[in-house]
Design a protein that fits this description.
With 238 residues, this protein is an alpha/beta fold. The protein is built from 8 helices and 14 strands.
Length: 238
């Protein structure tokens, strides 16, 4: 019944030495899902799981610091000796497939579909991936963006994606064993540490991520009274 979250990276808006951009790995004994594919996270993913054996990839929104490593992942799957049994299920916001096609222009015959089986998210979208249920909720980020509530048995890991405070963030957090919440702190479509703390009071545990360049980790921790996710750490929900 163990449910694990491994932090692949948390940086924004670009990767830093020792810290890729946003990316996380959800795992049970039988299932592995890569959540957000920010620059540098594909390399870190390989420390924990074979990329060609993932059960799915879930992308919160199309900003590059959450999605850019889908491009090298495409080449890894098709041209580097990896052996996926089928195109990898890819869950993401509307327009993600078209964006991939644009970046891959010049490759042969509908290239993105050769690597990915794309499913567009919508508010309330549910997907059963192995023994994990992925429930997506539209959040407030100024473009189509989603938070995730992932359930295994009766364990729940919630992820804000990028969002400002909104009712969907509260829904994601309600009763979750772990809320992984951004605390970028800049702009109208992000959370401050205090916003993250308010949402976190609805969950059993709060872990901050995606700390903006105007904040230090120590400042975010002090303001939210919560720890900051560390690249490479694994949180186990039993």
């Amino acid at each position: 019944m163990t449910f694990r979250l491994t932090v692949l990276g948390t940086a924004t808006p670009y990767p830093r030495p020792g810290n890729p951009c946003s990316g996380y790995l959800l795992r049970t004994e039988h299932t592995a899902v890569w959540v957000d594919a920010g620059p540098g996270t594909l390399a870190e993913l390989q420390r924990h799981h074979r990329p060609d054996l993932l059960d799915a990839v879930w992308i919160s929104h199309t900003h590059a610091d959450h999605a850019a490593d889908l491009l090298p992942y495409y080449y890894a799957l098709l041209f580097a000796g990896e052996h996926p049994h089928r195109p990898i299920p890819l869950y993401g916001p509307p327009g993600l497939a078209a964006r991939l096609e644009t970046f891959l222009a010049g490759a042969d015959h509908n290239p993105a579909a050769a690597a990915f089986d794309v499913h567009e998210l919508h508010d309330g979208h549910h997907a059963e991936v192995g023994d994990i249920t992925l429930a997506s909720h539209a959040v407030d980020h100024g473009l189509p963006a989603f938070g995730l509530r992932a359930t295994h048995a009766d364990r729940v890991i919630a992820y804000s994606g990028d969002t400002g405070p909104c009712p969907a963030l509260d829904t994601l957090a309600d009763g979750a064993d772990l809320l992984l919440c951004e605390a970028d702190g800049a702009g109208p479509h992000h959370c401050t540490p205090e916003d993250a703390a308010a949402a976190g009071r609805r969950a059993k545990r709060l872990l901050l991520t995606h700390i903006g360049h105007t904040l230090t980790n120590a400042e975010a921790t002090e303001r939210a009274r919560a720890a900051v996710a560390r690249p490479g750490e694994t949180v186990v929900i039993k």
